[in-house]
Design a protein that fits this description.
It contains nine helices and ten strands. By secondary structure, the chain is an alpha/beta fold. The strands form two sheets. The protein has a six-stranded mixed sheet, with helices on both faces. It has a single domain, classed as Rossmann fold, CATH 3.40.50.300. It is globular.
């Protein structure tokens, strides 16, 4: 039986826009499990990124609770949430936000040393991760402006994983990449998930979504349905067909 990592109860998020209320998330009851590669899909405006930000403690819900390993993170204040995210979560975004005045390696070390003061240990961990994502020592010495978009996204993944997070959140990680580079990034995410890393990814791309074992489909702020794809197998036509049928049923 799978172990629950994150649980939400009556999770709701409301924004006020020009005096009118917009209910972006509506009474979501959800459990996310350790070791899963969970994919969140839905049309533009369905609430995908808002849900990801709420689950990760980046944004507070308007109503409801979010529990992480039994700790109700929706009760934490902003300082406590910052510590929680730093110690338990990794983040990969479409925009990578590397610091241009720091080398690739120093971008990663800056995040690692916030949690672990053992510099030698952090450097050792960084080198292992860079090797895992196929970025050599020469690339590690470069500055962000000297590397490609795909390389930068892999640096972003190393930075996200440097503190050995319990869960990795990815928001459209291949959205700004071409198909070949995006596939390489997905291969890296898949490799880490197969090694036990829990992943939650927002995407609008069916090729990216196929990497997940569990697909959640949002519509108008609610989970309309979910699909269990099982373990990822490359070039599995049945997997693609199952996901395609599910998305058609959801009105994709």
């Amino acid at each position: 039986m799978k172990e629950t990592l994150i649980k939400t109860e009556n999770l709701s998020k409301t924004f006020s826009r020009e005096g009118a209320l917009s209910h972006v998330l509506k009474n979501i009851d959800l459990q996310l499990y350790k070791g899963d590669f969970t994919v969140i899909m839905g049309a533009s405006g369905a609430g995908k990124s808002t849900l990801l930000y709420a689950l990760s403690g980046m944004d507070a819900p308007s109503l409801g609770t979010i529990s992480f390993n039994g700790t109700v993170i929706s009760d934490l204040n902003s300082d406590q949430l910052a510590v929680f995210r730093r110690e338990h979560c990794g983040f990969v975004f479409q925009q990578i936000y590397l610091i241009d005045t720091m080398s690739v390696m120093d971008n990663v070390l800056a995040s690692g040393l916030l949690v672990n003061k053992n510099k030698k240990g952090v450097i050792s961990r960084a080198k292992e991760l860079f090797e895992a994502v196929d970025l050599d020592a020469a690339t590690q010495k470069k500055f962000p402006t000297q590397i490609s978009g795909g390389e930068a996204q892999r640096v972003g993944m190393v930075r996200a994983l440097i503190n050995s997070p319990e869960i990795l959140f990815a928001d459209e990680p291949t959205g700004a990449l071409n198909s070949k580079t995006g596939r390489h990034v997905l291969d890296v995410l898949t490799k880490f998930n197969e090694a036990g890393q829990s992943v939650v990814m927002v995407t609008h791309d069916i090729r990216s979504a196929r990497r997940g074992n569990r697909i959640l489909y949002l519509k108008d702020g609610s989970v309309l349905g979910e699909c269990d794809l099982g373990t990822y197998v490359p070039d599995d036509k049945k997997r693609h067909e199952k996901l395609s049928v599910f998305l058609q049923e959801m009105g994709w």
